[in-house]
Amino acid sequence: MKKYVTIYDTTLRDGTQAENFNLSVSDKIKVSLKLDELGIDYIEGGWPGSNPTASEYFKEIRNYNLKHAMVAAFGSTRNFKNPADIDPNLQALVAAQSPAITIFGKTWDIHVKVALRIELKDNLTIIEDSLAYLRPHVKHLFYDAEHFFDGFKNNRDYALATLDRAIAGGAECLVLCDTNGGTLPNEIPEIMEAVLSHIQTGNRKVELGIHAHNDSETAVGNSLMAISLGASQVQGTINGYGERCGNANLTSIMPALALKMGYSFEAAGHLEHLSETARYINELANLPHNRYQPYVGNSAFAHKGGIHVAAVKRNPLTYEHIEPEKVGNTRRILISDQSGRSNVLHKAKKFGIDIDSKDPVVTSILKELKDLENQGFQYEGAEASFELLMRKALGNMRRFFDLKGFRVINQKTSLDQAPQAEATIRLEVGGEMVHTAALGEGPVNALDNALRKALTKFYPSLGDMWLNDYRVRVLASEHGTGARVRVLIESCDKNSTWGTVGVSHDILEASWQALVDSISYKLMKDERERTK
After folding, report:
1. Cα–Cα dist 233/363, whole Å
2. Which helix (H) or strand (E) holds 426?
3. What confidence score (pLDDT) does residue 339 get?
4. Confidence class for position 250, pLDDT limits 50, 70, 90
5. Which of 111, 163, 357, 518 satisfies CB 3.0 to 4.6 Å to 491 for a cystine?
6. Listing from the earlier edge strand, what are the strands of the sheet with 497-504?
7. Which residue from 187, 214, 198 is spatially nearest to 165, judged by alpha carbons?
8. Measured distance between the N- and C-terminal CA atoms of the chain, rounded to whole angstroms
9. Tell me, what's the pLDDT at 306?
10. What is the average per-residue pLDDT within 508-524?
11. Is the pLDDT of residue 313 over 70?
């Protein structure tokens, strides 16, 4: 018998409470469409009574026909001084015209006394009144029991009494919230058992949900534990964004439920889009993707040690808990000083290079790799440089140009003006000497511009190539400004993206190495495509 659960996403509200996580109304619409495509059941759009952006979102989203997801508006119980029918917060929730509404109320008696500053019995009244007022206006009505786990541990009878009043008010799902994120997984079973025993008395038909925060690094574990014990709705955010340390991470919860625990939900049939969705939301928020994130991170299925690689090639299950393709991710074999022959042979196959496993050149490549990484080179994010290294070792790498010299001048003539950078370069291309200069936004950009200017007339396709990312890492900070630096460059054309690396005490020299590799790889790639 299939076990069903509903997925409730609160990225557009809880997620935007995270530091540096901001979305415009247009962004929120795009996220909603992406979550709907993934198969999320409920999308919490925000608190319409709290800010104009949230209210505008609920107006705008009505112009779109979502295929599966239902939008939920979020708010609080009424102010004790206001009757429900004139309370501004409740009126804003009704005006949002969303098919679902979620309101939260106080469960922890301390909050009732300190935050609301009303009597405990008055809090029970406003919980029931608020839900009862909203019930006729909405298709689905959920109640978030804020601080439930802390409240239960402090005053069990009162916490359960708040749930009774939420049921009386018409809530169809009671969502137990670990708002401070301090609850541990071993505490969940006893509390869940007590709640289920309490609400199942009589003929009351109500479901339970879980809303966990990650302050103790247990939000995913707490959520999975609650679902296994009888909760049928799980709330969380994509990539775990949220206030303080974040919310329960749906990109970890959903594959665990579907692939490991046997639960069924709409998004379970679309998990191959999970990694894409996680990256898409990061891009909209202009935040870097966490490469180490389970399931959807770039390193989630990356293998570095030679023994691991050899085993994975025979059977991926030896070092992978699921097939990466099931969540839209890919297996990656990394090249580093820990690499063995298996890593090199795997990369050679990927690059279309035919090398026998017993060929002495494999040992030669491994030795050079370890020597270079000892100097500070890193090829995990610079596969293009590693392919060039392999082809040079095999003697089948064409030299597209030869450097005869370059000079870079960075001149500042006034405190009020930005420095001016100019690069001059001399190259030999096919026996012809080229001498050119270019300005740039800084010395590295000037050098890049001069190099392209010198080469484009010989290789016009370089006009279709651009620099996508440029990163500098100081390798031994104790040497101060005399330390070696590693430069990683990510380059693109209309068909692909590739990474290259350079290392030197001189940042211009390191940049030059990475730039030359980037351009050489582009020219090699174009030449290979022409001869297919």
Report:
1. 55
2. strand 420-429
3. 55
4. very high
5. 518
6. 466-474, 485-492, 497-504
7. 198
8. 53
9. 60
10. 93
11. no
Q: Got the DSSP string for 154-214?
A: H-HHHHHHHHHHHHHHT-SEEEEEETTS---GGGHHHHHHHHHHHHTSTT---EEEEEEB-
Of 291, 288, 279, residue with least CA distance to 334: 291
Amino acid identity of residue 420, one-letter, is Q
The predicted pLDDT at position 456 comes to 92
Quickly tell me which residue has 């909209």 as its tokens: 284
Beta-bridge partner residues of 302: 332
CB 503 within 8 A of CB 377: yes
- Are 15 and 278 spatial neighbours (Cβ–Cβ below 8 Å)? no
Q: Which of 151-155, 399-403, 456-460, 482-486 has the highest mean pLDDT?
A: 151-155
In the block, which residue shows the tokens 């989630």? 300
Do residues 436 and 453 lie in contact, with contact meaning Cβ atoms separated by under 8 Å? yes
- What is the number of residues in the chain? 532
Look at residue 365 in the predicted model and tell me its pLDDT: 72
Q: pTM score, two decimals? A: 0.71
* CA gap 314, 139 in Å, rounded: 52
Between CA 365 and CA 378 the distance in angstroms is: 14
Distance CA 368, CA 362 (A): 10
Would you place residue 181 in the very low, low, confident or very high pLDDT band (cuts 50, 70, 90)? Answer: very high
pLDDT at 304 over 90: no
Q: Structure tokens of 340?
A: 């063995």
| pLDDT digits 0-9 by tens, 90-121 | 999 999 999 999 999 999 999 999 999 999 99
Residue keyed to tokens 């993707």: 289
Residues 297, 330 contacting (CB under 8 angstroms): no
Kindly tell me if the per-residue pLDDT of 479 is higher than 60.
no
- Enclosing H/E stretch for 220: helix 219-228
Q: What is the pLDDT of residue 342?
A: 65
What domains appear along the chain, each with residue ranges and CATH number?
3-284 (3.20.20.70), 302-375 (no CATH), 406-530 (3.30.160.270)
φ and ψ of 375, to 5 deg: -80, -15
Q: Smallest Cα–Cα separation from 40: which of 12, 62, 20, 2?
A: 12
Q: In angstroms, rounded to a whole number, what is the distance separating the alpha carbons of residues 191 and 107?
A: 14
Q: Is the pLDDT of residue 504 over 70?
A: yes
Coil, strand or helix at 12: coil
Phi, psi of 419 (to 5 degrees): -60, 150
> Number of C-alpha atoms within 13 angstroms, CB side, residue 246?
16
Q: Average per-residue pLDDT in the chain?
A: 89
3-state DSSP helix/strand/coil % of the chain, to nearest 5: 45, 20, 35
Instruction: Check if the beta carbon of residue 5 is closer than 8 Å to that of residue 232.
Output: yes
Structure tokens at 159: 């916490």
pLDDT of residue 363: 73
Question: Residues near 316 by Cβ (< 8 Å), separated by ≥ 6?
Answer: 323, 331
Please spell the DSSP secondary structure of 93-109, one letter per residue: HHHTT-SEEEEEEE-SH
Query: Which amino acid makes up residue 392?
Result: K
